[in-house]
Amino acid sequence: MAATVNTRKLARTMLMPAVIILFIWMIVPLLLTIWYSFQNYNLINPVNAGFAGWSNYKYFLTDPAFFQAFANTLILTLSVLAITVIGGILLGLLLDQFIYGQGIVRILVISPFFIMPTVAALVWKNMLMNPNYGIFAWIATRLGFAPVAWLETFPLLSIILIVAWQWLPFATLILLTALQSLDEEQKEAAGMDGANFASLFVYITLPHLARAITVVILIETIFLLSVFAEILVTTSGGPGYASTNIAYLIYHQALLDYDVGGASAGGVVAVILANIVAIFLVRLVGKNLDA
Amino acid sequence: MGKIVLEGVEKHFGNVKVISNVSLTVEDGAFVVFVGPSGCGKSTLLRLIAGLEDVTSGKIYIDGVNVVDLPPAKRGLSMVFQSYALYPHMSVRGNIGFGLKMAGMPKEEIRTRVDAAAATLNLTPYLERKPRMLSGGQRQRVAIGRAIVREPKGFLFDEPLSNLDAALRVNMRIEIARLQKSLATTAIYVTHDQVEAMTMADKIVVLNAGSVEQVGSPLELYERPDNLFVAGFIGSPKMNLITGATAEPYGAATIGIRPEHLAVAGDGDGWAGTISVAEHLGSDTFLYVEVPGVGLLTARTQGEVAFHAGERVMLHPDPARLHRFDKSGLAIRN
Question: Which domains, from first to last, does chain B contain?
Fold first, then answer.
């Protein structure tokens, strides 16, 4: 759209207040965090205060828990992305077909998204994954297997399942709408051109979905990098650090170890890592969003 | 090769009969136009032939083979859609070559055939562009390129020109007709525009409410309409249809006279009336004449005439060009 110089100027002026507020909203916490990250600031040791130099960073980055948390964060994010995008496409394709009670089925599919993360995690922890009275345990014993203590045996996998369950509806919803916007005549044209179901999917449907997939990946990544509530109410990051991600590690540092300085350093590291991921993502998939 | 024969084809959607008992023959190499008002079933009939819809009953033969159970791709026809239905993420080359790629043709051969098709359609400079970077007319040509590159037994056109502006439509009309003649491939063309039908067709099939009203060459339909519907549908401006006392002396329930067969004079015999509107087009003048007891009649005179709105004129129908219809709307011929 070509805008005249005047409308562009007007648009910028009108945008200004919002941009300024957003900027302050972002920059104040960031500056404070950076400030604290260079301070000795431990709540149980108020005597030791003052400038700390890089020691908070050294401490955080050399902590073996950091590497595990970093790996866990990546595994969690990538696995949930893979499950939700692939699962979302498959569910979208299914829901795109006509079925009786379509409206109800769609509401059922979408409902997990409306459940609070803490509630969802508790439901999974107590009703599904509990080795004594959970449904999975019941199924396992019915089939003659020993029940699995999910959260103890496969802590990270359990978290991945819970988070994927929560985000699958979102992916399905976005991808389903994208599927529905695929021109019927295009499918028919491909049919006349001799495309079977597989080539129709590969050559027509998937390219059409590219933009929607990009949106799903970008939005989900933002939230998946900072998964917290699900971990807190289920495994508390354990056993050991087996299900601790960076967000949880920072929480651990600040509110369990009372080390505000160290946690702030962790926060700054997380911001840097998130930005690296963001740059990669925008480079990799962001070009799909052009026009 | 490409003779298409329909035998008693019917299509129902639930209880609604969309196509009832259509039988017709499309000769190899012919350009046949299905024309009718919107909702008459012409697009459905085309989709039945294409295989995009299943027939409820009846048979469709392409080169003698009954194809009603074959999927669209196996029927050897290609289709140009109203929306063009180009693949937006593929280049023009990808679009035109997609059918060949699906058929598993080697890359080199696809390339030569796409190049040839693009050359025919003046698309060579645009081969690497995406459809969204093309104008409406160019997209239209890509859609046609996609159809011709497969060298099908027949082309199916579903109102392909309705998204173009008037000037471009006339150009594309000529281009499509010329292309079809040079390829000598059977073509079925659906339109609601009787001008397109008259100008392009070897044979016109007039459809109304799911059945065939009349089949014939453009001039046959113009000169000898079988019934009131065809009489009113073919020809622009429309044929004047007069009922009641004026028609009785001719021994018909309705008489029809085309605007160009009404002689207009300042005096003499005929129907006396007052011009309510005069449209001066330069090449023609359309006069809308209010005749008491008969109604509003349209008269067409060649060139510029000195009649203006409000004047009284006499309309004299050419008796040899008068069409007579009985009560049920069928033509009376003697």
Answer: 4-230 (3.40.50.300), 238-325 (2.40.50.140)
